[in-house]
Amino acid sequence: MVLTVVSTLVFPVSLGQIGILCMLVGLAIAQTEVTRQIERQRRMLSQGPHITVTSVWLLPAALLVPPQLVAALGVIIYVYLAFRSWNGTRPGEAHRVAANATTMILSGFGAALAGHLADGHSVTTVVAGALGYFLVNTALTGLGLYLGDPAKATAESCLGTMDDNLLELATLCVGGLLVMVLSHEPLLSVLVILPLYVLQRSMLIKRLEELATTDQKTQLLNATTWQDGAQREISRAERENGSFGALMIDLDHFKRINDTFGHLAGDDVLKAVAAVVKQETRAHDLVGRFGGEEFVALLPSTSKEDAIVTAERIRQRISELVIPTQTNEGEAVSIENRTASIGVAAFPLDGTSIEEVMAAADAAVYAAKNSGRNRVVGSVTPPTRELAAVA
């Protein structure tokens, strides 16, 4: 607010700059109407920072008009988004819209300052402005999300995923091109609406695909997607005369966590264990949540012995976890000394289908529990399969 008032007193406004503002407002409104349903769905399905395309309009404004007009554009865009794309603001959400608008306006000021300091060729100015916008926006958004819930804040939840940041950079690239178009052929600026529509639509489709294949509590593969991937791995292993290891991971006495601390605390335990399993396996391994407190991992081109080594690392890491959470009453607690029983099987030693292999791993889990829990047990390979494997 103070910056806007000061800039109004310091920077004069020309009729041409007002014309650019009006053109950007018109483009932003048109693009909002074209993508209204897509934006609404993207916002509903968003987890963590929600990336809009407002930088496409604010970056050109930052480099072509005075700061007070940048602020005016930010306010207009966010008010219009709130009531058209987001169906108005629910009680208690008005401050979020105001905070987001403020963040974008300050990011625009950062772009204007960076562009002014570059003070060189137009390309240098655009690149500097885009970088200034990105850095200020990332810092302010990350700080706001961290202060909103410091206890559960992570680098990814505050700064966004790689895809989130690539989307923001992509919109800034479009905004940079729009700067050049507005400077030389303003009427061609309407062509930017179609690429933005395709960009937002592709991001929505990607998000829907993630929801269809991912377990939302743990962000691992869901059971159906894991099963499909495992069937493909069976086919590959058969063609190449290969092998793979399979782990069945069952948390010990998980029901006690839900009964003692509540289901939300139990969810935090599941997330922490899922993170451990993901960290201790390779990027191309298939890791999923099988249901309840059970996790599965398929390790391509891995012997049974190596799979047991991986399982032992996972078991040890789980036993070392200290998970901060809270009870249903809001009392802060730390859950630790959790254990897991892990069964290990392998293809083709323990079965020629994924059902047979996982049945062998499941039987090994029961053997682990019956022998005291908190241990890794390899399946007992039938002698006939051992002979077939040797042959």
Give a brief outline of the structure.
The chain has 391 residues and is α+β, with helices and mostly antiparallel strands.
Keywords for this structure?
391 residues, alpha+beta, Alpha-Beta Plaits, five-stranded mixed β-sheet, 7 strands, 11% strand, disordered C terminus, GGDEF domain-containing protein, transmembrane, Nucleotide_cyclase, GGDEF_dom, Diguanylate_Cyclase
Please, could you describe this protein's structure?
This protein is α+β, with helices and mostly antiparallel strands. It folds into 2 domains: 211 residues, no CATH class; 156 residues, Alpha-Beta Plaits. It contains 16 helices and 7 strands. The strands form 2 sheets. The protein has a 5-stranded mixed sheet, sandwiched between helices. A two-stranded antiparallel sheet has the order 4-5. A hairpin with a 2-residue loop joins strand 2 and strand 3. Helix 4 packs across helix 6 and helix 5 packs antiparallel against helix 6. The longest helix is centred in the middle third of the chain and has 27 residues. The radius of gyration is 27 Å and the shape is elongated. The C terminus is likely disordered. One of its GO terms (cellular component) is plasma membrane. It comes from Amycolatopsis dendrobii. This is GGDEF domain-containing protein. One of its GO terms (biological process) is cell adhesion involved in single-species biofilm formation. GO terms for molecular function: diguanylate cyclase activity.
